[in-house]
Specification:
464 residues; binds glutamic acid; 3-stranded parallel β-sheet; 19 helices; 12 strands; Glutamyl-tRNA Synthetase, domain 3; mainly alpha; Rossmann fold; single chain
Length: 464
């Protein structure tokens, strides 16, 4: 059975890069009918916060990513880590190191002067004398001093690390007894039965250390997939400016979870040249062996394109519910179907959709001067008045086509082109030249509001 996990450190919000590896891990477990666990790595009491852990859970909920079983919090597992630290000490695989901070600094200084790699020199590795007074020891693991450690990586292939280049006897417990990252990750992955680890390649250099821990404790080493980073268009690591913000900020900007997940699955993974993936398809098709070896590029236009696609395909009643978050109350509006059918084809985000709705539902408070100038020349006012009169004569005005017929009638009677009525009417109804079809706008507004807006515009432009 494939067992994966996502193991964020709650130091801030959940960001795009983290979410992507979470998604990969989730999909791979689901594809195999396996398990996907969530572990909050909150051992760093200074940098971690409860609020950040909750933000991660909120984001998971919004996106519909469900973890299996209980969420594991490392901060609740000190006893477990202490037990394994003791085991390593008892078995002679780890030892107490009494080197003072001053000694360590001096060693570093000398190594730097000699242009050597700065590393611990193993001076307490075989120490059996009387410990110096007044120093709380750290605990170091006995790492191999020669030979190589090979990470069999599912993305990068076999990556070999020379023990003497990368390992010293690294600290597994600090002087205050708290365990370090490389120890607890390995213990938890082993105890949780994780056998496939998909994570960012910024962790690749930690992996040999974790392998040392797995081996010292007699645990099986999982399969690793180290996923290349996400870059911006300039080929640099993604920054806040490029959109590497809190995942929940995407919700506020009006992105749909389906769009964001579809966008992320394609960042560094592909299946032929397919771009649109439903959640079911992702679960059916995702395979970490197809993860790209090179960094992927974050592209906002692509995200917008996907979001537009998903908005277009979202049922109207779902959109009505989602738009509530954008202060748009459409439940009671009797023309909401017509309105949404017309607008959801055009919106890249829910926020944009809400703005388009406001622009139609709220009467214009001013008229774009350029548009007015273009629309209200020659006999525009006369045309609008004729249109208003014709509209008043019609009893049944419900659908866009009903209004279209009235426009046609005026155009034919006055022997003018459609633009001669369309332009001033558009300015009268919306205050500007852009927007959806006027027949749709009028059907949504109804005859009374349409006539009121025309009258107001005629008055405003007659004074010019
Ligand atoms: N807690 C680590 C982080 O947030 C991830 C550890 C891992 O995936 O192995 O970067």
């Amino acid at each position: 059975m494939v067992v994966t996990r996502f193991a964020p450190s709650p130091t801030g919000y959940l960001h795009i890069g983290g979410l992507r590896t979470a998604l990969f891990s989730y999909l791979w477990a689901r594809r195999n009918g396996g398990k996907f666990y969530l572990r909050i790595e909150d051992t760093d009491k200074k940098r971690n916060s409860q609020a950040a852990a909750e933000a991660i859970l909120n984001a998971f909920e919004w996106l519909g990513l469900e973890a299996d079983g209980e969420i594991v919090y490392q901060s609740e597992r000190d006893d477990i880590y202490a037990k394994y630290i003791k085991q390593l000490l008892d078995e002679g695989k780890a030892y107490k190191c009494y080197m003072s901070k001053e000694e360590l600094d001096a060693l570093r200084q000398t190594q730097m002067e000699n242009k050597e790699r700065t590393m611990y020199d193993g001076r307490y590795r075989d120490f059996d004398g009387t410990p110096p007074e007044g120093i709380e020891p750290v605990i170091r693991i006995k790492a191999p001093q020669t030979g190589e450690i090979i990470v069999h990586d599912g993305v990068k292939g076999d990556v070999s690390f020379q023990a003497e280049d990368i390992l010293d006897d690294f600290v597994i417990a600090r002087a205050d007894g708290s365990p370090t990252y490389n120890l607890v990750v390995a213990i938890d992955d082993a105890l949780m039965g994780i056998n496939e680890v998909i994570r960012g390649d910024d962790h690749l250099s930690n992996t040999p250390k974790q392998i040392v821990v797995y081996e010292a404790l007699g645990f099986d080493v999982p399969k690793f997939y180290h996923v290349p980073m996400i870059h911006n268009a300039q080929g640099k690591k993604l920054s806040k400016r490029d959109g590497a913000t809190d995942v929940m900020a995407y919700k506020d900007m009006g992105y749909l979870p389906e769009a964001l997940l579809n966008f992320l699955v394609r960042l560094g993974w592909s299946h032929g040249d397919q771009e649109i993936f439903s959640m079911d398809e992702m679960k059916e098709l995702f395979d970490p062996k197809d993860i790209n070896k090179s960094a992927s590029i974050y592209n906002t236009e692509k995200l917008d394109w996907l979001n537009a696609h998903y908005i277009k395909n979202t049922p109207n009643d779902t959109l009505v519910a989602l738009l509530k978050d954008f202060d748009m109350k459409l439940e009671e509006h009797d023309k909401k179907e017509i309105l949404l059918d017309a607008l959801k084809e055009r919106a890249k985000t829910l926020k944009e959709l809400a703005n388009m709705l406001v622009e139609i539902l709220d009467a214009p408070t001013q008229y774009d001067p350029k548009a007015s100038k273009k629309a209200f020349k020659s006999n525009a006012i006369e045309v609008l008045e004729r249109f208003a009169n014709s509209l008043e004569e019609v009893q049944e005005l419900h659908l866009p086509v009903d209004y279209h017929h009235v426009m046609e009638k005026v155009v034919n009677e006055m022997e003018i082109g459609f633009g001669k009525i369309g332009n001033p009417l558009r300015v009268a109804l919306l205050g500007k030249m852009s927007g959806p079809g006027l027949d749709v706008v009028m059907a949504v507004l109804g005859p009374d509001e349409t006539l009121a807006r025309i009258a107001k515009a005629v008055l405003a432009h007659a004074q010019d």
